[in-house]
Design brief:
The protein has 250 residues and is of the alpha+beta class. It has helices at 7-16, 30-33, 73-84, 91-98, 107-122, 129-147, 152-173, 183-191, 193-209, 213-224, and strands spanning 24-28, 42-47, 55-61, 64-71, 100-102. The protein is 52% helix and 12% strand.
């Protein structure tokens, strides 16, 4: 097997070739946390002094898969404050704040890190009462599916949905940024080690044995903090919550 170049070498080469004219590249992701596998990609945020529009792209460079988010300071600020923060998303801010500056730290990169840090420190906007009720309602429905699934594959379909939704409810109901996929576990462990253990133990039991009681108990406890299960009297008008009315598959 051919030995790959180091992530830092590849990032510097990208700055010299593909992203000529960029001020800085922030190298982030699992390779910077020491958690990379042989299939991990390089996650980078590329910042130009000025761009016509921001974009993202994926490609291979020096045998590394690369996922790049390309911005200038104006578009970065727009994404952080107008797109990500309102929806409870912090991935881009974390990539900039935690990323390693290439070729080196400068006053320019320091300002970008400060902006990302301010967004992370501020957190997402609190959920509205309607948003809390929506989450309570959809989780309540899924708990019913979990209590008496019609098949094993249906059980796992419900469990897969709940893995993300229970975590999202935990984060957002506490005014924290949410996470998706495998990032859920990293963020949960950092935010609340005790809850992380309950969460992982509950879903590990569900996926390994098909027993959902621990997940059901955990979810009911979370929902109880904001009124508990919700079905009776729940209503959403189509004109006021566009796209929220949808038929639940049964």
């Amino acid at each position: 097997m051919t030995r790959k170049h180091s992530p830092l070498f590849v990032t510097k080469d990208l700055l010299d070739t593909r992203y000529k004219g960029a001020e800085v590249i922030f190298l982030a992701g699992s390779v910077m946390r020491g958690e990379a596998t042989e299939h991990s990609d390089l996650d980078i945020v590329v910042i130009y002094p000025k761009l016509q529009q921001a974009f993202r792209e994926s490609f291979y460079h020096l045998e590394w898969p690369v996922e790049a988010f390309v911005h200038d300071p104006k578009t970065l600020k727009q994404f952080l404050y107008e797109i990500d923060q309102p929806t409870g998303t912090s991935t881009l801010a974390e990539m900039v704040y935690d990323g390693l500056e290439t070729p080196s730290a400068t006053p320019f990169s320091d300002e970008l890190k400060k902006m990302a840090g301010d967004v992370l420190q501020a957190g997402p906007p609190p959920l509205t009462q309607a948003e809390i009720e929506d989450r309570r309602y959809h989780l309540s429905e899924r708990l019913d599916d979990l209590r008496l699934p019609r098949s094993k594959i249906e059980l796992f379909a419900t469990a897969s949905f709940m893995f993300g939704e229970v975590a999202d409810y935990y984060f957002r109901s506490q005014n924290q940024y949410s996470a998706t996929g495998k990032s859920i576990l990293k963020k949960l462990k950092k935010a609340d080690p005790a809850f992380y253990r309950r969460f992982t133990d509950s879903f590990e039991q569900l996926f390994s044995t098909g027993q959902g009681k621990m997940v059901i108990d955990l979810t009911e406890e979370l929902l109880a903090q904001n009124g508990g299960l919700l079905f009776d009297q729940y209503r959403r008008d189509a004109a006021s919550v566009e796209g929220q009315l949808r038929r639940t598959d049964r």
